[in-house]
Predict the 3D structure of the following.
Amino acid sequence: MKDGPEVSRVSTAVIAGVCGFALAAGGGIALWTANRSPNSAETHSSAPTTAPALSPTPAESPAVIIPVPPPNPVGVPQAQTPQTLPQQALVSKSPQPKPLPEAGAPTVQVYWVKGAGGKFEAVPTKVAVKPADEPNTALEAAFNSLLAGPKDATVYSEIPQGTKLRSLSVKNDGVYVDLSAEFTSGGGSTSMTGRLGQVIYTATSLKPNAKVWISVDGKPLELLGGEGLEVAQPSTRQSFDKNFPL
């Protein structure tokens, strides 16, 4: 009867050991499974949640055309591509206005006669000349205008029609004027005084203080007219104003 309890104790101990091993094994498996599950979740959570964007199809993509010049055959000149002109070249140039005459353009003066209160009055008229003209040329233009007569009806000339300028020269000592014989024809002392003043004032239009030598047909003019109006040689504006006031 003693053997019975011992056997029973041994069996109980074996069963308890087996059960403990089974529990330990099951706990280890459960612990290992728990440790693996988070990694799997992390692995799945790291994956993108949204579907990747699809690449556009060729029909939806914008077309990019890169021009490729055709090959240039040997010996055939390549056509030049038209270039865009600068904006300034496309603007048509407006016609330039003509330059106005300069205020200081050279002029000479021609003197006419005008009646005022029973007395004669010398009236100047400007005649334009070229800047490059020599004094001789400028004064010749003035005398040609003088002998042609005035264009203004408010003034007149005492120089007889048909009078011609035979020669004119400007020298260091003054102006030499040679007129045709018509200059001494007709008129009284008043007319003679007027025509003499016209010649002297016109000859000194470039230099008002210049001296004037007057001749007719190459001979110095000493007496003018039938009344014998004496002419000083040389004459100046100052001497004329003193002897023959207009």
